[in-house]
Amino acid sequence: MHALYEPRHAECIVVLDPSGDAKRTGRRIGDNFERGLTLQCAEKIKEVIERSAPHIKIVITRMPGDIVYDLQNASLANRINADLFINLNFYYTQETKPTLFLYQFSYGNDFAQCNQGLALHTYDQAYKINKSVTDEIAQVFKKSLLQPQYQSLFMVAGVYALPIKPLIGIVAPSISVEAGLKNKELWINYCEAIARGIIEVLSI
Questions:
Q1: What is the C-alpha separation between 83 and 77, in angstroms, rounded?
Q2: Can you name the residues that pair with 58 across neighbouring β-strands?
Q3: Which of 190, 192, 160 is nearest to 175 (CA)?
């Protein structure tokens, strides 16, 4: 498969954004909180990608104890000229086979496309700069998650277009993942699938 667009630098840069921070625990899953599980998942995804695709550099938006401020992650992604931004979220479910939901940013009025860069557009319209690329990437990412080896682990729903707060202000193609967990250990079931999806999107 050919890359959907040409990387802007020798190595691809992916920003992984595990939801939560030192002040925001997120949703309770068993005796754990979402913030800890998303960070573990992000670190494992980084490990899988660095082992399988060393040309892809992974940047995680926070470490334990960090406080993340509004638009901080968008500023980071834009400053380092990221090629892809993935926001990670978990929710509790009693389903044995949970659902992974995919989202991309949209206000629902995306007819006008802009290619000139962020300087000429308001921050909340930054997603339009690469919207057509995001549309394609989201579908490739979903197709990767639907591979047979993952079908016994989870279902996939979306891609839904909504004004997702963690994705506002980001120029790079951006996807938000919200995955169900029946217990706190099952985050591991998503790591390889998400990592492989990222590699698929960015590889030739």
A1: 9
A2: 14
A3: 160
